[in-house]
Automatic annotation (TrEMBL):
It comes from Streptomyces shenzhenensis. Its EC number is 3.2.1.26. GO terms for biological process: carbohydrate metabolic process. It holds the Pfam family Glyco_hydro_32C. Transmembrane segments: none annotated. This is beta-fructofuranosidase. Belongs to the glycosyl hydrolase 32 family. SMART domains: Glyco_32, LamGL. GO terms for molecular function: beta-fructofuranosidase activity. Keywords: Disulfide bond, Glycosidase, Hydrolase, Signal. The keyword ATP-binding does not apply.
Amino acid sequence: MRRRTALSVVSAAVGGTIVPFAFASAPAAAGSRALPGTPTARWDFDERAGTVTREAVSGTADPVAHVFDDARYKPDSDPLRRRGVRGRALYFDGCSTVVTAQGPGDLDASGGLTLDVWIAPYAYEHGIDGKPQALVDQHDPDAKSGFLLGLRRFGQIVFQLGFGDDLIEVQGSPDQPAAKGRWTHVAATYDPAARRLRVYRDGRLIGTATTPGRAPVLAAGKPLLIGRHNRSTLLNGEFRANMYLGLMDSLVIRPGTLDDPTAHKEHSDAIAALPGRRVPRPDLVQHRSRYDGDRHRPQFHMLPPWHWMNEPHAPVYFKGKYHIFYQHNPFGPYWGQIHWGHAVSTDMVHWRDLPIALAPTAGGVGPDGCWSGSACVDGDRGPVLFFTGGDDRLPYRQRTGLAVSAYATDGDPDLPAWTTRAEPVTEAPAGLPAGPGTAWAENFRDPFVWEEDGVWYQLVGSGIVDHDGSRVTRKHGGTALVHTARRPEGPWEYRGPLHWNDLAAQPEPGEVWELPVLLPLPGPGGRRSGKHILLISPWWEGFNRNAVKHTYYWIGTFDKRACRFLPDHDEPREFDFGEHFTGPSGFVTPDGRSVLFSITQDRRSEQQHAQSGWAHNAGMPVSVSLRADGRLGVEPITEAAGLRGERLARIRQTSVQEANRRLADVSGDLLDISAVVDPRGARTITLAVRACADGTEETLLRYDTAERRFWIDRGRSSLDPDVRKGVHGGTVELDSGRLRLRVLLDRSMVEAYVNGAHSLTSRVYPTRKDATGLRLTAEGGAARVLELDVWRMNGAYDTPVVPAAYDPPRPTDVDALPNHDFGTGDLTGWTVVSGTAFSDAGVTTRTDWGWGGPFYQAETQDDAGHHLWGFDPEAGGDDATGVLRSATVVLGGDGLVDLLVSGGNDPDRLYAAVVRAADGTVLARATGRGVEQYRRVVLDLSEHIGERIYVEVVDRTTGGWGHINVDDVNVPVRRQ
């Protein structure tokens, strides 16, 4: 058990006396108004370590919850602390950090109430479900009682106080927010004499509201939370919204009322007590060390320091530096609240983080999100950014905007500061003509912009539809809409669709094209070929099993005058053989190469994202070219070799067997592997990576000479049943009779490049520490290794961190619950006790539920993926009820039972439970979270080892979400 440490609270010294830092001594009361008195609760957050914070008045140690208190993929670590206004401050991460307190102490609010706190926000939440980001709250919206101090959209300060019949909210002036990146002192007060609520920012009044003439009602029975709304919205069944992101210092709750002179004086006195009479600059930098020891987090690929990213975009070269931007949610590892992250490099492989470049703003083009786009250098003023602005107030919600760097004034080639223009660049009006129909105005995004011969070209991803004025009546296919201008600000002239796919004949590119990219293709030796490559990511309005998995391309000619793309081949071609290379973005480097960036989707579940604290990363940038044989050339950029460290193997002109023997001492999960093999009659050539010596875990890269096919086999890549596996590949011709293979291995990343013409990008998630070996084998013939080199790889940001957390081995002296994963395709081994909710018809292999995303059922020995879906429309759907029971067994092993559960959230009437057979006592239970995607639940029943138990699935709920889904019920059964 790791050591937990809580240090004593240190208060600030004011005038030689130790007093709470958040306020100075109040002057004598004026009239009937009682000025703020002694605090009933105070949190200074001065601890340097540990998972508690001390409430100074009562001395209570309040727990600080944090995703890594009990980490899944890395060693446990404490919540983050940084320097505060004085002493220390607690860093709230926006998705998991919350203090559950026992305060506010002996508080009588009838004579007034004052709350104040120092905050330094990192980012503003969207205002999900109309709720504020809570700084501190103990309230009950239904009973209209209690209080909440928080932030609404764009940092607007708000204070709510309940009076039983009314929940009154005072809002600070929108132009006086709690600014990002600086310390702000926020105070809120209730004045019963004036019947007013007031909020103050840095000692100045910024908002008032009238209250009823009766005393407020506190919500003493509700938890007091710091950093999270106590009615927070649950997102995707995993993530809590309405949470604070940033530093917090010295939170105080006091009886009494703050007036304007006192608020001003208290703030002035607090500033005067600081060294140099200055508020320090907050340290909000998000350090990557937060994830140290994570066994799956890549080390030499570009990824944000924290949380969630999607596609990197807008690569641009300026003043000796490469810049890349990326879709980013600073609040957590989930989709939404999109900002533009920013990183800079001198070689496209070693990266340095920069501040967020673009964020939603109240008066901007994208108040509801800054989505993907591109960059282009505009002469002396430097790069300009074109982005998709989301605005939910508009009928079509999407348009493109422009942002300009501060380079012209600050001269900083890092380009850390950007200003967005208030006016949109391009929009899609209703009825915009496009080929056989009109542009799908609701889908108008991802501008790709370049300048050529004084003309600016802009492609915008969209679709082509027929529309009757109220709805879409037919979908023709995806497209990229072309606009041209003489300057970035426009005016932009619409020129029609660049190209489009006919859904009836070519469904693969989807109903809408996202992230269209058009790049010139250099020929052999870098010479101009006159050809271009058009790449797109397909999008469908409803669920499609191929969504967010593939990138398609055409090679052809760009007609600049007509603004049309003329493909050399009708059928779109898949760019990458895996299911992880998506979201392309590209540019032309100063030396004339066309380089693509991409997002490597990690294909993990929402639960896995929540447990890891991060999601997705970029792929290795690749160079694309036109080969002499007319095929597309694809290779990692030459700069990738600059990441190489120690050479672990150099093998020349030998048999596969001898090469494999020499690889026995070579291992690693950060490797660059380069091989040239002459098959010489071999049927297959296989390179195993991330392999255990006994083959328990291994990932196979295999070439079949007869089928001319290269593929990755992840069937044994992980013992974790919740990890996506599968086989993926495509047709590959040998290169002059040889197999040329380059493999980049980066923890969970596997990128294979074959014969300079194909790529295969995938993810693997081994659980064992020894899953780091390499093996090279061949079947038949006398294959010969002409070249084989292996290098250890260095990190893209710093020295790679060694993974330090692995799953403990499960008991091996136990049996499984009969038909634990419903692999028989029916309820064999289970008994329907009552009702119609559960039947053989409910056991399904469906991977999605028709209108949403994947179930993510277990991938165990049941290759078909059977699971029990509790929603059977033929048996009543949500209105059906019933009870299902497993066989009775004796609990053995370590007593840990785990299972996959999803569906409705009702722990009393809708659950899966472990029940003691002797008396029917429920020992542990789990319910869903209002989503269909499965999550793994672990029940610790170690105290009941040796008892006879069974698993019972109960559905006594009707109406919406009145069903429960179950799969992979792992009970360690004692062998008889």
